[in-house]
Amino acid sequence: MNEQESAAWLGLITVCQLLPAALDSQLKQDSGMTHFEFFVLSVLRFAPEQTMRMTALAETTSSTLPRLSHVCSRLEKRGLADRFPCPEDGRATNVRLTPEGRSALVRAMPGHLATARRLVIDALSPEQLDALAQVTEVIRGRLDGDGQPARATPFG
Questions:
Q1: Domain count, the chain
Q2: Of 12, 17, 40, 148, which alpha carbon lies 20 to 30 A from 90's?
Q3: d(CA 39, CA 109)
Q4: Is the pTM of this model over 0.85?
């Protein structure tokens, strides 16, 4: 890599390491949940009937089924989500956001958004935000494997 490429790559890797830990720390302190749990609950909130098949939820959250199953077990124990057999396919399992899960998500949102604003949004000019959105769209398209803009999630 040349100097420009190296600086960009190391900057990206550093942010990818530091940002999740900062988001986890804030959410754990304020809401008792991890950033991944928050993400799972957010995806469910925007799903039809706030319910998804576990396989679709794993795909949407870029998770493995074993990791997602472990997280859903923790969410179930806290009453934030529940799992049940899929009515269309008895071999599949659905996961649903509970009213308690929706309330926990709503309570967690202000602190999470304030942290995102403090760490990223407010640190950048409008032009830098546009550039960041363009750059991350290109990278997401490559990571999704089809080279196309990534499908929308609750966060973009």
A1: 1
A2: 40
A3: 11
A4: no
Is residue 90 domain-resident?
yes
CB atoms within 10 A of CB 109: 14
Q: What is the DSSP letter of 149?
A: P
Which residues, including other chains, have CB under 8 Å from residue 94's CB and lie 6 or more apart?
51, 52, 53, 54, 83, 84, 85, 86
Angle between helical axes of 3-31 and 35-46 (0-180°, round to 10): 80
- Domain region containing 40: 18-144
Q: Which two tokens stand for residue 50?
A: 């706030």
Is 92 a domain residue?
A: yes
- The CATH number of the domain holding residue 28 is 1.10.10.10
pLDDT, tens digit (0-9, with 9 covering 90-100), for 3-19: 999 999 999 999 999 99
CA distance 94 to 52: 5
The band of 41, judged by pLDDT with boundaries at 50, 70 and 90, is: very high
